[in-house]
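Blinded run. Sample ID left blank on purpose so nobody reads anything into the name before looking at the predicted structure. Input follows.
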Amino acid sequence: MFICTGGYRYGGKDYDRSGELTQIVKELDCLEHIVYLPFRDVPAPADSALNWHDLLSGPEVAAADFEFTTGPFGMPLWILFSSGTTGLPKAITHSHGGILLEQLKLQRLNMDMRPGDVLFFYTTTGWMMWNFLVSSLLIGIKPLLYDGNPGYPEPDALWRMAAEAGVTMFGGSPAYADMLAKRGVVPKDKYDLSSLRSVMLAGSPVSPECAAWFLRNVKRDLWLHVGSGGTDVCTGFTGGSPTLPVYAGEHQHRNLGVAAYAFNDAGEKVVNEVGEMVITQPMPSMPVKFWGDDENRTRYKATYFDEVPGVWRQGDFFKVNDRGGCFVLGRSDATLNRFGVRIGTAEIYTVLEGIPEVDDAIVVNLDLPGGQFFMPMFVKLADGVTLDERITDEIETRLRREYTPRHIPDKIIQVPAIPTTLTGKKLEVPVRKILLGTPLEKAANTSAMADPSSLDAFLDYARTQHDYLT
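Blinded prediction complete.
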């Protein structure tokens, strides 16, 4: 069965998706039924499609008419696709049993959610946080759904909705929080948020400044916790605990039942040092397989277990301090390795948050022939601002002062937009591949991007400024 609609409305504009629907139906020769939710005057993808509204207005089906079948713990439940931040996405297949256990544990114990709570997390249906949101029905929580641009028709649209619905937990990404800060939104001055107990941030590294913004502008008496997990397991590796203190910019602890550690290059556990995030013991919701993989699960094993046999490598930089607090510092496959020193991109982005002219940025390191490298930084500046010597000097001075001279890029280039996924993750690896000459179709999954045209400036730079390769 294929359930679909003909388009969507975002930021006040309608988007027709009939072409994509027709192509999907054409390629799915196993379809028995198509259920179509009408959108404007966009036609259904097939004459045989059933109308959603007609089905709802038909005779009610009694609960006794439903049949339930018992299956094995590892029976496939759903397929989630990786975000595309490191290239073409993977089709990750999860199990009924593993997801059930992980979601119950995550929401009830780690997040302290209770029956009757109202949960909101701003997400697309392509991000694992959508699955997290609808899974809250398992424990009697009311999920609040939002369809559209989070900053339309006004920048605080989500907070108005949260106040009206009595949201108890509000979730979003650091990119969303950055948008609020830049637009001067102060929800506490406009809305009754007395029901709100907690805010969770996920999707990318969270700076102390981002955490402080919520306490100043949303609610002082707020449990603000940071989570990091992955589509790979559809749950969190690190996150919050209602019984532990909160430190700005820090994940409170490793989630229950998650043996997450930082490994150094020798494969040893380290504390207070940045290393590779690894999971040393199985979790129930580790994937059953990658859809389309061979019988030996070759791609699955190569993705997670090639580095250290029997140990899951997540692909993130990770640090755990003495008290068990955690820091997830960006993708390790987007590492900036200069003069033998590994630099997490999150360190650079944190510094840039303090420069008002810089709206966003992306930095990559290109390994070149002969052991050389080139580290460009691309910046999107505030409206009407042009990159000049003053802004360049400010960026370089702050990076040198707060970190090291190695953090200073070889070149700073202004671009009109920074390429991200639909969930706000920066496409560092695809940008690096493009700058090294990889064709666009092999470097990035543009269908998973917020704005595919944002790559145009990087493609142009690779074509016209490729002297760095020589």
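Unblinding after everyone has recorded impressions. Residues 205 and 329 are 6 Å apart (CA to CA).
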